Amino acid sequence: MTALRDLKALEKKGFINKVHGGAIKKEISQYEPTFEEKDAIASKEKEVIAKYAADNVINESDIVSLGAGSTITKIIPHLKQKKLTILTNGLKTMANIAQYTPNFTLIGSGGELRKPALIFVGPEAENFFKRNKADTVILSGTGLTLKDGITDPDPLDAEVKKVMCENAKKVIFLIDSTKIGKRSLVSMIALEDIDLLIIDDKAPENFIKKLKKSNINFEIA
Questions:
Q1: 3-state class of 116 per DSSP?
Q2: Least confident piece of the model among 4-13, 74-83, 103-112
């Protein structure tokens, strides 16, 4: 029974697929690029999506939870709001807010710093987002499929993002077209649980048709 519980836990976290008599390892990419590597990929598309989000989904005086991804950090220079409270677990996100929007109220989560992505994870980060509620959470991921939803390579980061989503009134994901059809290790959130998905105009037409057919709320930047 202990082994069965362990297998169920591993399957839930996305490491394996349970099969009759045991389990098999998922053949999904576990490689996590550095922040700089991610920032260099589809930089133009990320910029367009980020500006669209800054202009259209954040209201004056909102409490906003921001993730740590390279797409999310591109939002900050475009913020025209005069008063916002920003909650984040991203080291780069904090640095950009301090540089571009020093008058905003910035609250960092703390936790264990994961250097590849420059994010704070672990129980301290999760508890921070449980205590502090947001009007809007804006996140990204490394993969997007209709079946698996938004996926990430790191289970610890995914757990923090799940808590962020659970404690925000509105959940928004920014996904550039290079991530569509790809999936990483951990399924983070189903598309039907997202309030708004923002993509760029290079998204495949057949994928857009499937989004419409599935009644997923999305906008093209």
A1: coil
A2: 4-13
CA 124 to chain centre: 18
Q: What pLDDT score was predicted for residue 117?
A: 85
Q: Which class in CATH covers the domain with range 31-220?
A: alpha beta
CA gap 137, 96 in Å, rounded: 17
Distance CA 208, CA 215 (A): 11
- Residue 66: name the closest of 168, 190, 145, 148 by CA: 168
Q: Report pLDDT for 125.
A: 98
Provide the whole-model pTM.
0.83
Task: Please give the Cα distance from 66 to 216 (Å, whole number).
Answer: 22
Domain edges within the chain: 1-28, 31-220
HEC-encoded secondary structure of 71-129: HHHCCHHHCCCCCCEEEECEHHHHHHHHHHCCCCEEEECCCEEECCCCEEECHHHHHHH
pLDDT digits (tens, 9 = 90+) for 31-44: 556 666 666 577 89
Residue 27 has pLDDT above 50, yes or no: no
